[in-house]
Write a structure and sequence with these properties.
Helix content: 25-40%
Number of strands: 38
Mean pLDDT: 91
Number of helices: 36
Shape: globular
Distance between the termini: 40 Å
Structural class: alpha/beta
Radius of gyration: 28 Å
Length: 1064
């Protein structure tokens, strides 16, 4: 049937900030859906609080609300925009939960708004554990034995009926939040309470354990005429017991018999019909007992899911786009397949290749937590690779991760350690499978320890056996057949060179001389049965080449690789804009990336997509094949920047800021000399190449200092050190110092104000795009700081000086494109902290704040245009405020402190926009999940140097009807200054103490600053309890002041909503 004409406007609910369990795959899906609905002529209204995604660019919706996503705000938008329908199925669990809340509040009926894509009844049937169980049993299938509970007592009583181990699964949550595996009664009451608290409806399902069973997922799409297609089957490499988002997955499934696949297919169709998802995509998960083939249904997501993005990229089938069009009335047979053009969307994709996804973890950011996986998701990103065989795809995926290892080269011969890791759910288990094989542990024994299917284990054994063969055959000289076999089995040049103790360049030159080069095949959805028109390519050493390079002017854009803390979708945003801008200017664009979650790897963003690892080897192969006129390495964060010199050496033309200028900014000595030439202040600094040297330099500079290893991303292992004793501990625990690994030492400017500046330079003119003032004092990583645009407390003379210095630096460095500079301002003196002559993570935020697509302009500048040609030669002045607030994953890591410092910890960000600064800050806090109270009890306890600063703060709180509660030191200071407060014990002083009050819901906001290691340790439980009990907490005085201003606004006014398009 044709599209619906009874609806004209549709509200799309986005997923909000990037968090563990709900990352940029939903921005990819949402972007696709918005494009599809606009294509059909509907007015698209979007709400999403995330500025980092291209989805919230004003071009993707008619009305773009960058506002907090909660029921009150969404109702205001509904009242203002009067949409006919809401699409809640492409914004992850966030959108689904909001839709359900709007229904329960009567908002949908009040404004006569229809839910499309999934009805309330279907969502409840799939998401409410008891309803889902009954539905599955009604069609003759089974779920694991389970009991649904709504309180702690019932939960504790029920576990004895289910037995240990038991799986605890809260309802209506994302990424397994609050879930755990209970092996015993230890801490069970606390964990059960946390699980109930994490469910918005206080519901938890306790499942029998099926740990060790095989896990499979099917992506299913249904239309209003009850046509159902299976898009993709996905097999988890890891057995049940690890969240599927943290598991290595393979598509299509490799170990299912045809009979088992047909059963899962039939069950999936029965399930989607029974649940009642009448249009769109769903993800259905199954467990299979490897002993007898028994099948259980794990769960179903009645929406586009994390796996939907993976399935879309694995098959080339745009699930979110199709789901959006089905939601407005089309049927599958009416929609064309964008890749073949000849087949309808009702054709099920067929794969003649293998896809492997490996998650990316950042446990190194949280050393206090045990690197152990379970039912609660902990990965921050993922990579995907495509190969002709599982072995080839696995090798490519492993080297895409951007960790220290490019294959099975994490060597360990300690059998006891190997067995320990195989028995655990350690994220390094994949590498330890190889170590086990190397020391002679049999496949059978490994299977008993891990329950990983023997088919996968035998494939890994073949790769490890190949290592010995290569060493033997290539002992005297490189052997063509052996190198060819190695490449077909996914071994990188780096791994081969490591095995043979040769240089990687030597292996590459030998390959090229002997014509051992990859060919590129197309992802066509139909196993080459029909011609494909969308060049979506992957490399293989198995067959003929289909890349068909054309003699056009072309530019290659290197993406950012897997998401991780320190390098997120802000960089993907820039890459997408580069592709759009250069296409506009007549270039053929080539995108190279390996991240399946992002918009840049959608099949229709660039003229050609190469889904490949971002290594020197893989990138050079593409450059040699395509011979682009230019290559952009400045938009994908550190990932492509690290490749710049290798690419230049291999003949690639790097456009934009030169590799030498990038090195000048990165090299401490060269950069220091340049700043001295320009007479720009820097904090005193030094480089130590031994422990003694570090201690001597630090003593000369004077404490406090900031120390860090050289060449790090996201402030990795960066720390503020206040004494020599602390420095010695840091050097012993955090880093190893040597000539190859020097330690960087800088004077820490205590109480300084930090500022970020983003600029575009064409080599002649420089435009300052934005000056962002940090709310927190110096010492918090810029990626974690709350920032305000335009600056709210800097004098005009300081702003003018910042502009002058920034332009001078850009021209001296020879920047052509984007540049980010960080300054610290102390007593009106401006100090430069660092310069990054590349796209920064603040580019999308500034673009939305000022209404100018600065990444697009920078791309055109890099390709040769100047700013005058592009009519962008003056700074933009705005009359509103934009506040960036960071979002953190602390809740996923139980032993981690929430205190911020110079090492970045945030996974995402939100934006508050308003004509009033306090309102913008309040919006940012609400969007980040910090619901500010407008009255109640405020706990205030600060370090000695902050005490004079809190006099006005506490007076303001009292005027706002807050009661001040403080520990002894702060209490005595306040009393001396005629400010009333109630005294409460520190935790170490016994009960009743501050943690007891938070647990008893008698504290509404926490303001706590610390200095020494001892203070930090003693106050850890305060911050942690505030986090788990969802009490807003602030760990800097500046942040606390901003919160108080926002509370004052909320007491006297209400949040107003306004689309991005009306700010300019």
């Amino acid at each position: 049937m044709p599209k619906r004409t009874d609806i004209e406007s549709i509200l799309v609910i986005g997923s909000g900030p990037i968090v563990i369990g709900q990352a940029c795959e939903f921005d990819y899906s949402g972007t696709q859906a918005c494009k599809a609905l606009k294509e059909e002529g509907y007015k698209v209204v979007l709400i999403n609080s995330n500025p980092a995604t291209i989805m919230t660019d004003p071009d993707f919706a008619d009305r773009t609300y960058v506002e907090p996503i909660n029921a009150e705000i969404v109702e205001k938008i509904i009242k203002q925009e009067k949409p006919d329908a809401i699409l809640p199925t492409i914004g992850g669990q966030t959108a689904l939960n909001i839709a359900m809340e709007l229904d329960s509040r009567g908002v949908l009926d009040k404004y006569n708004v229809e839910l499309i894509g999934a009805k309330v009844e279907a969502i409840e049937k799939a998401e409410k554990r008891e309803n889902f169980k009954k539905a599955i049993e009604s069609i003759g299938l089974r779920v694991p034995n389970s009991i649904v509970v709504n309180n702690v007592k019932d939960g504790l009583d029920s576990i004895s009926k289910i037995g240990f181990p038991a799986i605890i699964r809260p309802s209506f949550t994302l990424g397994g939040t609050g879930g755990f595996i209970a092996y015993s009664d230890e801490n069970l009451e606390i964990l059960m309470k946390n699980a109930l608290d994490s469910s918005p409806i206080s519901e938890v399902q306790i499942d029998e354990s099926i740990i060790g069973w095989k896990e499979f997922e099917l992506e299913v799409v249904r239309d209003s005429k009850d046509n159902v297609v299976i898009i993709c089957s996905i097999e988890n490499f890891d057995p049940m017991g690890i969240h599927t988002g943290d598991s290595i997955t393979v598509a299509p499934s490799q170990t299912l018999s045809d009979k088992q696949y047909q059963l899962l297919r039939d069950y999936s169709i029965d399930i989607i019909r029974e649940i009642g998802v009448d249009t769109g995509g769903s993800n259905i998960q199954f467990g299979i007992n490897p002993k007898n083939g028994e099948i259980v249904v794990i769960e179903m997501n009645p929406r586009v899911s994390r796996s939907s993005a993976l399935a879309s990229k694995a098959t080339g089938y745009p699930i979110a786009k199709i789901a959006a069009k089905l939601a407005v009335g089309y049927t599958l047979d009416e929609l064309p397949n964008d890749i073949t053009l000849d087949t309808p969307a009702s054709f099920e994709p067929t794969l003649d290749y293998v896809v492997v996804k490996i998650p990316r973890f950042t446990f190194e950011k949280f050393p206090q937590t045990k690197p152990e996986l379970g039912t609660q998701m902990k990965s921050v990103g993922e990579v995907m690779s495509i190969g002709s065989t599982f072995k080839e795809a696995l090798g490519k995926a492993m080297r895409s991760l951007e960790i220290e290892n490019l294959g099975f080269d994490l060597y360990d011969k300690d059998k006891e350690e190997i067995i320990r890791i195989l028995k655990s759910n350690n994220p390094k288990k994949l590498w330890y499978l190889a170590n086990a094989i190397r020391i002679g542990v049999s496949v059978e024994e490994i299977y008993k320890l891990t329950k990983i299917d023997k088919w996968f284990l035998n494939n890994i054994k073949e790769i490890i056996d190949l290592e010995s063969l290569i060493k033997k055959k290539c002992k005297k000289s490189l052997d063509k057949d052996s190198i060819t076999t190695a490449k077909k089995n996914g071994l990188s040049d780096s791994i081969i060179s490591d095995l043979l103790e040769k240089e990687e360049k030597e292996i590459r030159e030998f390959r090229i001389a002997n014509n051992i080069v990859p060919s590129y095949k197309m992802v066509d959805t139909c196993a080459a049965e029909f011609e494909a028109y969308t060049p979506y390519l992957y490399s293989t050493y198995q067959s003929e080449d289909e890349s068909n390079p054309q003699n056009k002017k072309k530019i290659a854009i290197l993406g950012g690789g897997p998401n991780r803390i320190g390098q997120g979708i802000e960089f993907d945003y820039c890459c997408v804009h580069a592709s759009f801008a250069l296409k506009d200017d007549g270039y053929q664009t080539l995108m190279i990336n390996c991240n399946p979650e992002t918009v840049s790897t959608d099949y229709d963003i660039s003229d050609k997509l190469y889904f490949e690892p971002l290594t020197a080897e893989d990138t050079i192969s593409i450059i040699n094949k395509e011979k682009p006129d230019g290559t952009i390495v400045h938009f994908g964060g550190q990932t492509p920047l690290k490749l710049a010199l290798d690419l230049e050496e291999a003949g690639a033309k790097i456009i934009g800021t030169s590799a030498d200028s990038i090195d000048l900014a990165e090299d401490r000595e060269r950069f220091k000399n340049l700043m001295e030439e320009l007479k720009i202040r820097q904090p005193d600094s030094g480089i130590g190449k031994s422990t003694d040297e570090v201690l001597k330099i630090s003593s000369n500079i004077g404490y406090p200092i900031i120390v860090r290893p050289s060449y790090v991303l996201g402030g990795r292992a960066m720390e503020i050190v206040y004494s020599e004793d602390d420095l010695i501990k840091y050097l012993e625990k955090a880093v190893s110092v040597s000539n190859k690994k020097p330690v960087l030492i800088d004077k820490f400017l205590n109480d300084a104000k930090e500022v970020d500046v983003d600029a575009i330079s064409d080599g002649k003119d420089v435009v300052i795009c934005g000056i962002l003032e940090h709310i927190e004092e110096a010492g918090v990583h810029s990626g974690d700081s709350t920032m305000v645009l335009p600056p709210y407390s800097l004098s005009q003379s300081v702003i003018d000086e910042i502009i002058e210095k920034s332009k001078k630096i850009a021209l001296s460095l020879g920047v052509r494109g984007l540049m980010n500079i960080q300054y610290a301002i102390k007593e009106n003196n401006i100090f430069i902290i660092e310069v990054n002559p590349r796209a920064s993570r603040t580019v999308p935020f500034i673009s939305k704040a000022i209404g100018i697509p600065i990444a697009k302009i920078a791309s055109k500048v890099m390709a040769g245009k100047n700013l005058a040609e592009l009519d962008f030669t003056k700074e933009v002045t705005i009359n509103h405020f934009a506040v960036k607030e960071s979002v953190f994953p602390f809740i996923k890591f139980p032993d981690v402190d929430t205190l911020l410092g110079p090492e970045m910890k945030s996974t995402g960000e939100v934006m508050g926009l308003d004509d009033n600064l306090a309102a913008a800050f309040a919006k940012a806090q609400i969007a980040a999940g910090n619901n500010l109270p407008i009255k109640g009890n405020a706990f205030v306890s600060v370090k000695d140097e902050d005490k004079p600063k809190i006099i006005d703060l506490c007076k303001r709180l009292i005027n706002l009807d807050f009661k001040i509660i403080s520990t002894k030191g702060t209490h005595e200071f306040l009393i001396k200054n005629s400010i009333h407060s109630e005294i409460i014990n520190k935790v170490k002083e016994g009960s009743p103490n501050i943690v007891d009050l938070i647990l008893d819901k008698k504290i509404d906001i926490v303001m706590n600053t610390t200095l020494t290691k001892k203070e930090i340790t003693e106050s850890f439980s305060i911050r942690r309890t505030a986090l788990t009990r969802q009490v807003p907490y602030f760990t800097t005085v500046a942040g606390a002041f901003a919160a108080v201003e926002a509370i004052a606004y909320l007491r006297n006014d209400s949040i107003k909503v306004k689309p991005l398009q009306e700010y300019f």
